[in-house]
Structures are given as C-alpha cells and as structure tokens.
Amino acid sequence: MESNRATETFISKRNRAVTTVLCKHLSLDPKNLPSEQNSEGDLKSLVLNILQLLGDGSSLKNKDELLKWVEFASSFPVEAEASLAKLTELDVDLAQKSVILGDGLKPSIADFVVYSAIHSPVTHLPKTDTQKLPNLMRWIDYIQNREDFKEVFKKISVEKTEFHFQVPKAAEKLGMDQNVKGSSGSKRAEKLEVELNSSKSSSGSSQKHYTGKDKAIEEKKKEPEKQSAEKEKDAELSVSLLNIQVGLIRKAWKHPSADSLLVEEIDLGDGNLRQVVSGLAKYFSPEQLANRHVVLVTNVKPGKLRDVLSAGLSLCFLQMGQNLGSVFRFLGLKASQRMS
Q: Where are the beta strands (DSSP E) in 205-261?
C-alpha cells in the first residue's frame, strides 16, 4: 500500500515537473493543459498535448525517437536498485554524445523530459554511485546550466574531475636529455668565451690602433659602397620593373585539362596575340571575357600551366556588369599602352 502511494507521489511530482519545464522551455502557458493530466495522467499523452499547444506535434522531427525517451522516463522505476540500473544504461548511452536527442550541443524536448524524470532519484544517490556515472553527471551539469530551472528543481551538485596531463615516458626522457645537453653545452660555451677573451687580450698589443681621424676616413670610404647597395636594393623592389600593359581579350576558351582555368588570347596592339592562362573559370564563362579589356604584366617568363603555355600575368579583370574599357578611355589609355 505504501509502495503504491510512493509511486503515485513520484508520478505526480514527475508530471508536474515535466509540465513546468517543457512549458518554460517552449514559452507556453501550462494553464492551457487539463489540470488533472498535469499530475495524474499518462506522461506520453501529457507530452503530446504540450506539443499540440506548440502547433507542431505532427511534424516534429525524430518524433519516434522522442516518444521512445518519453517511454523511458515514464517507466523509470522508484526502487533504488532498479533506478540505479536504469541510470547506468543512460550513462552508457551518453558516452558517445553530448545530449540525449538534439542537434549537436542543443538539447531537445527528450533531454528535458528525461532530466525531469531522473532528477529526484539522482539527488538521493550516494557519492560512490554518482562517481560511477561520469557521462550522466556531465550531461546533468550541462542541462541544468543550459536552462534556468531553479523554480522547479534544486541544482544537483556535480564534482568535476580534475584533468592531469600524463607526459609520455619518451617525452620525459627527451626533456632530460635536452637538459643534460643544455648544461654541457653551456659549460662548453663558457670555456670557449674564456679562450676568446684570453686570445683577444694577448693579441691586443699587436692590433692596429686607430685615431679618431683614421676612423672618419674609413667610414667615408664605406659610405659610397653603402649608398650604391641601397640603390640596387631599391631598384630590385621598384614596381617600374614590371611591364604592365592594357590588353584586349579577343577570345577565351576552357583549359583542356583544368576546370578552374581559362585560356585567353589577348591583343596588346603590337600586331601579335599573346596567350595567357588565368584561374577565372569559377567567375566567368569564356563568352563573358571576349572583347573585354584586361591589365596584364607582360615581362614575365613564359611557362606552362597544366601543359598549356602562358605568357603573361593577369592583374585586373572586369567584374560582372562592368566594362574596364570605359575606365581606360577616361584615363586616356588604350591597348598596348604601358601603365608602369
């Protein structure tokens, strides 16, 4: 008789908790549900009625999986031993996932229904049992920190296991070897430094001594060399070394062996047509490039791109709906004219 009353009390508390949690999570008014069902009705019917209030009970994704977990919560035992066995099953199931039934890290209605059903049994578990359920306790900690259910449930205290990084023995040995090498290396360096200092002091008397005037003469001799080196360096980096010209694309076609490349035949106004390979197939069709202007570097070494000769480097192509020809005309530029 007492066991029946305990079961009825457990079911009543569980249903009220499920109702409050789901209505809070789904922003629904629990007053719209039948009052008798909130405490004494079947849990499956209760959840389905709540989904009907939501308006998508029939089209809910993973509905069969959801009802399976509702059945798990509905049949959750009151007895401590049987309850622990069920919690162990749930712990195993959670070993490979973050939530019971959801999208990645986003919990679902099933997570909140199961959480409501097992909250009371978990709070009565001794510490020795909770330590055997790490996946379950991790999930409980996530759910109760993801949603604010303090009006319904007392927060379950979860002890988080400290993570101790295990250094592999091979790495420890390597570190010890490096320390030994470092200490012996530093000793060798100190010995070398002493020898160098002694050699400097012994040869100091034979070294040539410069006066201030001699040093100024030496620096003046080095100045022209330094300036010429800087000029050569600047010349190497000058953009004027690039022969940048305006060209007109006469025709274009797909590269025979590369889907991302197009081959263009470009008129530079000198009577010769230059073939250039460019990675434009993702952005333009060959027909869109015909009779369009292009800015081209022409003094690059010809080379093959996927067995097709390319004798230039395209710098600027038109965007969709634009024509660079009008820009060139505004600037007074024409095909073959050099821009740098």
A: 244-254
Per-residue b or e along 187-219, where b marks 16 or more CB atoms closer than 10 Å to that residue's CB: eeeeeeeeeeeeeeeeeeeeeeeeeeeeeeeee
A 10 A CB-CB count for 72 gives 19
CB burial class (10 A; 0-12, 13-18, 19+) of residue 70? buried
Helix (H) or strand (E) holding 193: helix 169-203
Question: Is the alpha carbon torsion for 97, 100, 101, 102 positive or negative?
Answer: negative
Q: Mind listing the pLDDT tens digit for each residue in 300-310?
A: 889 888 889 99
Percent helix, percent strand, percent coil in the chain, to nearest 5:
55, 10, 35
Q: Tell me how far apart the 2 most distant CA atoms of the chain are, in Å.
A: 116
Q: What 3-state DSSP class applies to 264?
A: strand
* pTM given for the model: 0.46
Strands 293-297 and 303-305: unpaired
